[in-house]
Write a structure and sequence with these properties.
GO molecular function: odorant binding; olfactory receptor activity
Membrane topology: Multi-pass membrane protein
Number of strands: 2
Protein name: Odorant receptor
Order of helices and strands: HHHHHHEEHHH
Structural class: mainly alpha
Pfam families: 7tm_6 (PF02949)
Keywords: Cell membrane, Membrane, Olfaction, Receptor, Sensory transduction, Transducer, Transmembrane, Transmembrane helix
Shape: elongated
Number of domains: 1
Helix content: over 70%
């Protein structure tokens, strides 16, 4: 079997390898785009998952908003409720944006599969594999850090137990990560408390997955664009090295192929920017708001710790998990923006 035949035979497995993390993140929330090969059964399952995700998100947001409006808490308490609420609300906006960008995402996925099928030489394949591995690494790290942040916050919150008295009855309930309007859902009873806790975990997972989906998409797509620039460099070097041994007509055809491929790369980078432009603005707003919230929590809780009104261990857990969540979100956003900017600059250098 010749080298080109073996490379083409591995094209499908290599494209699946580069997109595997994205598929794992997008499919559970029904956001993996449709293709011409998508079956009716897969479309129905995806639609069911989308409806289910929206129900879970709204089930978390609506009681929390009702608590913020109707419960006469202090300003400090309302701010504490507002912080997690904005995370869930903006996560829902990201999820909606992810669904609206489905067509653009599918075009990029098909472009990646086509580029893998176009590979003919071993060195071109190795360049693309190198950048595909890097994209998977960045995607994995983003998913681990962001999910660990929000899940650690939810776990720490749920690990705290409250003992309340209702009449002559004493009840033990778990603290919810998101406050709930008690007249809407009686969370001080069982099993309502446990059900709401599970739904809030799922809502946090969906909200995080929508943000992680954009992080991983930006990482994988930008890495692929970088790999294509590497392939284009190989083609240019081959053209220069073989210029003396090529006929004029063949030389023009080679130049035409290089120019067309360069335009394909520029178009691909423009599609990445189109997908990421709106979500970058949302994530920037969320990160700035989150940093302000963390600063406010620390300033207001420290005096309580000093006066022994709040257990020091609870304070440390809350601050560490909240800072872990939001700082990692900011780092992921910064890495994605930097990576896309680097690819755009590299494309113009080649041009």
């Amino acid at each position: 079997m010749s080298e080109s035949v073996m490379i083409k035979a591995n094209a499908k497995s290599h494209s699946d390898y580069s997109l595997q993390i994205n598929r794992w993140i997008l499919k559970p929330i029904g956001a993996w785009p449709y293709f011409s090969t998508t079956s009716t059964r897969e479309r129905v399952i995806s639609l069911f998952l989308i409806v289910l995700c929206y129900v879970i998100i709204l089930f978390n947001i609506i009681p929390c908003v009702a608590h913020l409006i109707f419960v006469g808490d202090s300003f400090y308490r309302k701010v504490k409720v507002f912080g997690p609420l904005t995370h869930s609300f903006l996560g829902g906006i990201n999820y909606t944006n992810l669904l609206f960008r489905g067509r653009n995402i599918s075009d990029c996925v098909e472009r990646i599969e086509t580029d893998w099928r176009m590979v003919k030489k071993e060195d071109e394949q190795q360049v693309m594999l190198k950048h595909a591995k890097f994209g998977r690494y960045v995607s994995t790290m983003c998913a681990i850090f962001v999910h660990s942040g929000i899940m650690s916050y939810c776990i720490v919150s749920a690990s705290n137990v409250q003992i309340i008295k209702v009449g002559n009855e004493t009840r033990t309930i778990r603290t919810l990560p998101f406050d709930v309007y008690n007249k809407m859902i009686p969370v001080d009873t069982s099993p309502a408390n446990e059900i709401v806790l599970v739904v809030q975990f799922l809502s946090a997972f969906i909200a995080d997955s929508s943000g992680i989906a954009f992080y991983t998409l930006a990482s994988v797509l930008a890495s692929h664009a970088c790999g294509q620039l590497g392939v284009l460099t190989i083609w240019i070097n081959d053209y220069v090295n073989e210029a003396g041994n090529r006929k004029q007509d063949a030389s023009f055809r080679k130049i035409e192929t290089i120019v067309k491929h360069h335009l394909r790369i520029l178009d691909f980078i423009a599609r990445i920017e189109e997908i990421m432009s709106w979500v970058c603005m949302i994530e920037l707003f969320r990160c700035v708001l989150a940093i302000c919230m963390v600063g406010y929590y620390i300033v207001t809780v420290v005096p309580e710790v000093c006066l022994s009104l709040c257990p020091k261990s609870v304070f440390q857990q809350k601050c560490l998990t909240t800072m872990h969540l939001y700082i990692n979100m900011k780092l992921n956003l910064s890495n994605v923006v930097f990576f896309i900017s680097k690819e755009q600059n590299a494309s113009y250098i080649v041009q």
